[in-house]
Design brief:
DNA-binding region: 29-48
Number of helices: 10
Keywords: DNA-binding, Transcription, Transcription regulation
Pfam families: TetR_C_13, TetR_N
Number of strands: 0
Protein name: TetR/AcrR family transcriptional regulator
Strand content: under 5%
Shape: elongated
CATH architecture of the largest domain: Orthogonal Bundle
GO molecular function: DNA binding
Oligomer: single chain
Largest sheet: none
């Protein structure tokens, strides 16, 4: 019988992810992973395969988590709350980027930028993840349209693509050094330009309108 593994797989994958995240795929050696995880290279190869297979496992788990976060914010609920769910998700992404003081960015974006051109597995997983996010956003936009919070004549596919680009773009410009308030303003502006009644625009941005004097 094969001997049971004497390590916590979740913990090992988490530490491997941190190493890849910190130094990138090309800048990470299996020796680095071994040091970070406390496992010998033989154990790593036996459990996860070579560096490429280990990265695919870590990258795939991260992509799954990205979609799960979006599902937690966007999936389900009454149509009357769809606009608020969209607002909450876009603002969450802005806040997550604003709090990334080390400017590590998202492993999805980092891995795709480095490997998608030459690695079909990374390219495919990245595309699947973006498609899943796009579907979630489109579904919520359609729900908001049914409730009358977004113009029913607007194309939900195009609006979803706009919001997805804004969310992913916030991560990119935040990593480049834009300050947190600018990131929040980007989120506000993206929500404010959705074709909806003025009163609902104030709700979407999450900021109180100025009082008239």
């Amino acid at each position: 019988m094969p001997r049971p593994r004497a390590f916590d797989e979740h913990q090992v994958l988490e530490r491997a992810r941190e190493q890849f995240w910190a130094t990138g795929y090309a800048g990470t050696r299996m020796d680095d992973i071994a040091q970070a995880t406390g496992l010998g290279k033989g154990s790593l190869y036996g459990a996860f395969g070579d560096k490429g297979k280990l990265f695919h496992r870590v990258f795939g788990d991260w992509c799954t988590a990205v979609v799960e976060v979006a599902e937690g914010r966007l999936a389900g609920g009454p149509d009357a709350e769809a606009l608020a769910r969209l607002s909450g998700y876009v603002h969450l992404m802005a806040e997550n980027t604003a709090s990334d003081t080390e400017r590590r960015g998202c492993l999805l974006a980092k891995g795709a930028a480095e490997l998608a051109q030459h690695d079909p597995t990374v390219a495919g997983r990245s595309a699947e993840t973006m498609t899943a996010l796009l579907t979630l956003l489109r579904t919520e936009i359609s729900a908001a349209q049914r409730h009358g919070d977004i113009d029913s004549a607007a194309d939900p596919e195009r609006l979803a693509a706009l919001l997805l680009t804004v969310v992913r773009g916030i991560e990119a410009v935040g990593k480049a050094g834009l300050d947190p308030e600018t990131l929040r303003n980007i989120a506000d502006t993206a929500l404010a330009v959705l074709p909806m009644p003025e009163g609902q625009k104030r709700l979407a941005t999450g900021r109180s309108p100025a009082r008239e004097t």
